Amino acid sequence: MKNKGLVCFFSVLILLSVGGVAFAGALETFTGEKGEVRVAGGTAHITVMKEAATRIMKHNPDIHISVGGGGSGAGIKQVGEGLIDIGNSGRKAKEDEISRYGLQMFKWAIDGVAIVVNPVNKVRSLSQEQVAAIYAGTITSWQEVGGEDRKINIYTRDEASGTRAVFWKKALAKGSVAKNANFVVSNGAMKAVVSQDPYAIGYVSIGHMNETLAGVAFNTIEPTLANVQSGKYPIARGLYSNTKGEPVGLVKKVIDYLFTDEGQEIVAQKGFIPVR
Amino acid sequence: MRPVTEKIIERFFFLSAFISGLITCSIFVFLLIPGLPLFWGGRFFSILTDPWAPGLGQFGIYPMITGTLAITLLTMLFAFPLSLGCATLMSTESNSRLSWLLRKTVEMMTGIPTVIYGFVGIFLLVSLVRNTFVSGGSGMCVLSAALMLTLLVSPTMILLFCDSFSRVPHSYGDAVLALGGTEVQKFLYVTLPNSWPGILAGFTLAFGRVLGDTLIALMIAGNAVQVPGSLFDSVRTLTSHIALVFAADYNSPEFQAIFACAIFLYFFSSILAIAVRLIHDRRRIMS
To answer: Cβ distance A256 to A266 under 8 Å?
Structure first.
């Protein structure tokens, strides 16, 4: 009797540990590691990076991963100057940035940039010309595009933003932005201001969309993940992580983790399109 | 013969003062070196007066200078009378419950981090301004930032004013009362004139803080690059401009323009400090 109980106990223990290993899977490579990884830059990346960091640090508390923002420009500059280990960017690093800093780019997700308004606003579709005219300041009232007779409050992002770079190139066709446009410093901040302001227009990474914002169809194409994936929705870009030179050690493991099944699952869960 | 400890303490304080001064000067040198090409190229003054349009090759900071001045002056216009009034109430009614409550509230307010004010500003004040003034656009504007900054700097000013009121010797006030003067007369003709240096110090400190504040303006002033035409226009301050452009390339003209912003801020606050010092000295000679 006693033996049987012991056998039972051990088999359960073995099963549990095997199950545990299978579950931990991708995180197993972090066992026994120790150290700190500093991540900053693109603000669209933050949700995925935070989740990945939390999982890794939960698995092995000896590892500390800090995730900051600052914008794509800051991510590239800081990683190039050696201030951080991984610099995120929502655009490809430019040729001169790559050659000056010896950057390595890793594209681990595809993201769309959605034009957004407050849910109270009835406008749900704009053409490319209308978007460009609103941002240039030639269309100033929502009435002109089928909404209320109220002034349009334009929100845009700072120069360091990769989201801005993509939006400017693909939605504004490199057109000008009105002088009275308000500037915000992250995707999160854009979400906060547009969800507060009933007469706002702004743009965020599709991964940041939720019910506090209303997406606007661009040339009649809805800003959804499916449309980005099929290539129908044109305002899309890759999400990159950059390192100075070939990544080694813990930094390499963190980047590799983003490309594992589990990492890519986080990518999908946070509203982006996995690359694998 | 003075004790040795006193000498040591004296040296220590001298060293502290010397280091503080040295740091201030070296910051100026640090700003000046990268900013020098601007002076040599003769572009410094055009940068101060040009508009900001990187796409057109214009890197002027004139809109940011006007934005900074608009926010700073409006804030001081709100905050100075408010603080003076509040401090007056607190010191003339020093034994009442109201005064005690005010004092505790103000003391607590000095400890609130700036980012909390900014956060509250985005969610409460900005909506309030937008809904109150229908033509006011987004609500991210000079007025919102100035109101929030008033809340930020007033507590410090109030406490400094109160301290300087209480430093006026009691016997002065008693003399007024003994001569048949009222409490109001005592305050107006004795307390207020004698606490002038403290009021000036509080004003300078608050002015410098508003001028140098980055977060509130960055979060709720809207950061649009334009010369403000009304209180409801979105503006960008010099400090927010530095924060927003900082991520640009080191060698780019954008980055050089940041140094012009910093030099301007440095000059402006230095001139202010010197001016206040001069006024202070002159008053002392006169009295």
So the answer is: no
| Inter-chain touch B245–A199, beta carbons under 8 Å | no
Q: Tell me if A151 and B224 make a contact (CB, 8 A cut-off).
A: no
Would the CA dihedral through A97, A103, A104, A106 be positive or negative? negative
Shortest Cα–Cα distance, A194 to chain B (Å): 10
pLDDT per residue as tens digits for the range A196-229: 999 999 999 998 899 999 999 999 999 999 999 9
* CA dist., res. B211 & res. B205, Å (int): 10
Give the 3-state secondary structure of residue A200: strand
CB-nearest to B139 from A179, A181, A197 is A197
Predicted TM-score (pTM) of the model is: 0.80
Contact A200 B224 (CB under 8 A): no
Q: Report the alpha-carbon distance of residue B212 to residue B240 in Å, rounded.
A: 10
Nearest Cα neighbor of A196 from A206, A178, A184, A179 is A184
Cβ–Cβ gap B130/A183 under 8 Å: no
Residues of chain A positioned with their CB less than 8 A from the CB of B130: 197
Quick check: B83 and B198 in contact, CB under 8 A? no
- How far is residue A179's CA from residue A190's CA, in Å, rounded to a whole number? 18
Instruction: Determine the distance in angstroms separating the CA of A199 from the nearest CA of chain B, rounded to an integer.
Output: 7
The complex scores an ipTM of 0.78
CA angle B130, B244, B44 (to 5 degrees): 115
| A160/B247 CB distance under 8 A | yes
Q: How far apart are CA A265 and CA B105, in angstroms?
A: 49
User: What integer pLDDT is reported at residue A1 of this predicted model?
Assistant: 43
